[in-house]
Amino acid sequence: MPENMFTEEQRDALQEIANLAMGQAATRLARLLDTFIELSVPRVRIVRAEDAARTLREMTGIDETVTAVRQGFRSDIKGEALVICRSSGVGQLCDLVNDPYVHSAYDSVSQAELMFDVSNVLTGACVSCILNQLDRTPIFSPPGLLGEQISLEDVFHADLLAWKVALLLEVNFALEDQTFRAHLVMLMAEDSIRRMNDALSALLSSL
Amino acid sequence: MNDAMEQSLSDLVIERVGFGIFVLDRDMKVLMWNRFMQDHSGQPAEAVVGRSIFERFPELPRVWMSRKVESVFQLGSFAFSSWEQRPYLFQFDHDRPITGGVDFMQQDCTFMPLTRGREVIAVCVTISDVTHVSVMQREREEAVEKLQEYANRDGLTGIANRRFFEARLRDEFLRWQRYGGEMSVLLFDLDHFKDINDRFGHAVGDTVLRVMAQRVADAVRVQDTFGRFGGEEFALLLPCTPLADAMLVAEKIRMTIGDTPVEAEGMRVPVTASVGGAAARPGVPSYEVLINEADAALYSAKRQGRNRSVALA
User: Fold this and answer.
1) Is the pLDDT of residue A101 over 80?
2) Residue A106: per-residue pLDDT
């Protein structure tokens, strides 16, 4: 299993960091959006390229087509973040950042723009918080649409991937009192796993 | 290299670089304004720095922009705006005023946090001119549209091809299944077309097909779909038309084709056609069955001596 790329101690540290970071992200999001967004406990896995789609299917429980927005982030640890939800749930996803004030006559906002905004806000908050815990300040690329009606298999072109193993971190969101959930998935390839490894060792030895 | 030198180099770069850079504080007050912004807005740094950005640019989307900047302050991460959703932030000219076909410079914008320690002290906004991308995108969309059009047309006659005809027929059949009403299909075939090819040559045969397609296309209603089904076989889809009316159309088409010989390469080629018609009715399970019925009617028209129209008995 590729799971042994981290020591048990490192895994625990990473889980702890992710938990802390999501708490922080939730606080920041609540302040920004003026509504409480419930974040799940983050799940961390090491996945092989060929298993990535299946793992994602298991973790999200989604069999239908999805809408997926991607964004790159980089520091010495770099990767991609995906915001994924059922295609039928895009409207509810947008509700996370939508408020009637935005729909004033002067400032009209399209659903596509809202979708990118909400993805960017979720990605920005979560990825920044995790990397800040590791003393990194990430730089982000603009959000781009992977597809509006795609299957999870289409997210990864398994035959074209330049990586064999990736670190996958999943967290899901819900608005208070709602069953709709969107998923944020952070993916980092081998090179960044090694750097993550170093960063975790440094953190552990500084304790 | 000493600090002063580095400082002045980055200042020079910021002044010369080919995209807009400016910095806002939390009250939307401008702290920095580079040369690109000055050149395109006509507002020098002195006129803008120290004031609210909305004072000099009241046309900016105030609520939207304040929220973007606030999100960067609160989350400490980036925010973006793409020309595809929001073509521009500032009403700047672009360098394709003649050939561009767009009103203002198309802009991709990035809102970046400037941090000291953990604290966001200001937001830097960059503006990229992506007018050329938007122009290319539009040209691509036009090309795709044209290809789509070609993909639906028969190369020789210019009328709908079989693929497009069947797609229209399928849609119409689904609508009929759901909402009821009437719909009919005619299939027709030029009589002894093989003999025409053999006697006069393929060039004449092609002309005959083109002229016939044109004559019939001019004779049918706009809401009908007329397509080449293959070889010398054509099909006509008649939405909202009962079989009796469809057979009147069949006769009209047969006359249109047979009344006047085709002139091709100095020769007069007499042409006739046989027509078969069928209509959707309860019990017809699919559009394929409907086509088969029209085909059976066409076969029977052929067997009865050609140059006639026959409805499915």
Assistant:
1) no
2) 47
Tell me, what's the pLDDT at B117? 83
For the stretch A149-194, pLDDT in tens is 898 888 887 566 678 888 999 999 887 767 778 899 999 988 999 9
**Distance, CA of B306 to chain centre:** 42
Contact A32 B63 (CB under 8 A): no
Q: What confidence score (pLDDT) does residue B5 get?
A: 65
**Locus of tokens 């980055």:** B10
Query: Does the CA dihedral A111-A116-A119-A120 come out positive or negative?
Result: negative
Task: Report how far residue A162's alpha carbon sits from residue B63's, in angstroms, rounded to the nearest whole number.
Answer: 42
The Cα A164–Cα A41 span in angstroms is 26
Where chain B has pLDDT below 50, the residues are: none
Mean pLDDT to the nearest integer, A9-38 = 88
Q: Distance (Å, rounded) from C-alpha B285 to C-alpha B168?
A: 17
Asked if B69 and B61 count as a contact pair (C-beta separation under 8 A), the reply is no
B20-24: strand order across its sheet: B30-33, B20-24, B119-129, B107-116, B79-81
Q: Looking at residue A160, what is its pLDDT? A: 65
Is residue A155 within 8 A of residue A53, CB to CB? The reply is yes
Selected residue of B26, B54, B62, B77 to mutate for chain A interface (largest A Cβ count, 10 A): B77
Alpha-carbon distances of B265 from A122, B18, B200, B206, rounded to whole Å: 71, 63, 9, 11
Type of residue numbered A34: D
Locate all alpha helices (DSSP H) within chain A, ordered by sequence. Answer: 8-33, 52-60, 90-95, 111-133, 152-155, 190-206
Question: What is d(CA B105, CA B90) in angstroms, rounded to the nearest whole number?
Answer: 8
Query: Closest approach of chain A CAs to the CA of B47, in angstroms?
Result: 25
Answer whether B108 sits within 8 Å of A125, measured CB to CB.
Answer: no
What pLDDT does B173 receive? 95
B27's tokens: 């009250």
Q: For the segment B70-92, what is each residue's pLDDT rounded down to a tens digit? A: 999 998 999 999 999 899 999 99
Whether A100 has a pLDDT exceeding 80, the answer reads no
Which string of DSSP letters, residue by residue, matches A14-34?
HHHHHHHHHHHHHHHHHHHHT
Residue type, B75: L
The predicted pLDDT at position A107 comes to 52
Cβ atoms B310, B275 nearer than 8 A: yes
Exposure of A141 in the CB half-sphere (CA atoms within 13 A): 14
- According to the model, what pLDDT value does residue A1 have? 43
Query: A80 has which bridge partners?
Result: A72, A187
| Global pTM exceeds 0.80 | no
Contact state of A28 with B74 under an 8 Å Cβ cutoff: yes
From B63, B85, B112, residue closest to A113, measured CB to CB: B85
Nearest to A123 by CA among A20, A22, A4: A22
Higher pLDDT, A124 or A94: A124
CA atoms of A61 and B162, how far apart (whole Å):
42
B89 CB-near residues (< 8 Å, 6+ apart): B60, B61, B65, B81, B107, B109, B127
